[in-house]
Design goal:
The protein is of the alpha/beta class and 315 residues long. An eight-stranded mixed β-sheet has the order 1-2-4-3-5-6-7-8, with helices on both faces.
Length: 315
């Protein structure tokens, strides 16, 4: 595998940092990876290594407010940059993913392009396929959700606007972090030596890597959570969901204990809606007792085998 990096300047003037991994053999397809919230693209080096061995070129950008797109920072200098999405917020993040897709297509005009979105990246992918679903060969949505109550969205906007007024647009919001991140560990908070991140994986070594990484699990500003809520407004709108091409292959994967998808209940809700809308190529697999980060779970070999089989089938 050959790895490299590059940057591009997006339509809002923000420099986006990108990782690229290439197989040693003739490539059969391209996979564009979208990382989750409060992490970064370099964490997917292991995913890319597995996919490259099977002949897939991989790309992943550090999204706005994350990783090297936010800057070459240390834990002491995260505040004011970590989680700050900049101009156009959520929309800008989605547009960046599409801009990278255009770059990829120019570099590999004859190869099919797939997206793999994890968590926040899956939500971004859900928006992407509403706008440009006909430009890709298919997508995998990992650790996502598909149902957020309107009342929660309405209440969230009120709380977040108050928090932004109090703290400003770039100051980390511990209150919102506790509501949205700490609550994910409710089921495991009484575990011996609980770290607060048991919800991510049963593999303690992978959880520790996350904890030790200053660019993981940081406390974002309230503006990021507000943009998330506005994104939900968009992606869960029935008219927008109906824009997803009816024949686009979509593969949902989730751990049965993943709190983001409400232990698969939210994921099932979206699957059922898509089928109701007439989407004919929607499949899924739920992994018993697995948690949120399937690519870092103790059964990741099984997950990788399923992902590779799906990609090869649709490539």
């Amino acid at each position: 595998m050959k790895s490299s990096t590059f940057t591009f300047t997006d339509q809002d003037g923000i420099e986006i940092f990108v990782y690229k991994w290439e197989p040693d053999t003739e490539p059969k397809a391209v996979v564009q990876i979208l990382h989750g919230l409060a992490e970064h693209a370099r964490r997917y080096n292991g995913v890319a290594e597995v996919l490259c061995k099977e002949g897939f070129v991989c790309y992943a950008n550090d999204q706005r407010g994350h990783g090297l797109t936010a800057g070459d920072l240390t834990e002491a200098t995260l505040e004011g940059k970590a989680g700050v999405l900049g101009q156009n917020g959520w929309r800008g993040v989605v547009n960046d993913v599409h801009e990278l897709s255009i770059i990829i297509k120019n570099e590999h005009p004859n190869l099919p392009l797939f997206l793999i979105g994890h968590s926040w990246g899956a939500f971004i992918t859900q928006d992407y396929i509403q706008e440009w679903g006909d430009e890709i060969k298919g997508c995998i949505l990992s650790g996502t959700n598909g149902k957020v109550r309107a009342l929660v969205i309405k209440a969230g906007k009120i709380i977040l606007k108050g928090e932004i007024k109090k703290l400003g647009p770039t100051t980390p919001s511990q209150k919102m972090y506790n509501m949205n991140f700490k609550s994910n560990n409710r089921e495991w908070k009484k575990d011996e030596d609980a770290t607060g991140f048991e919800w991510l994986s049963r593999d303690k070594s992978e959880v520790q890597k996350y904890i030790d990484d200053p660019w993981c699990g940081f406390v974002p500003p309230a503006t990021l959570w507000l943009e998330f809520i506005l994104g939900f407004d968009k992606i869960y709108n029935a008219e927008n969901e109906n824009k997803i091409p009816k024949d686009l292959p979509i593969f949902f994967i989730s751990g049965s204990l993943c709190p983001i998808g409400n232990k698969t209940k939210g994921v099932k809700a979206m699957i059922n809606r898509l089928k109701k809308y007439g989407n004919t190529n929607v499949t899924y697999k739920f992994y018993e007792n697995a948690r949120h980060e399937l690519f870092n779970e103790i059964n990741r070999d099984e997950v990788f085998n399923d992902v590779i089989e799906w990609l090869e089938t649709h490539a």
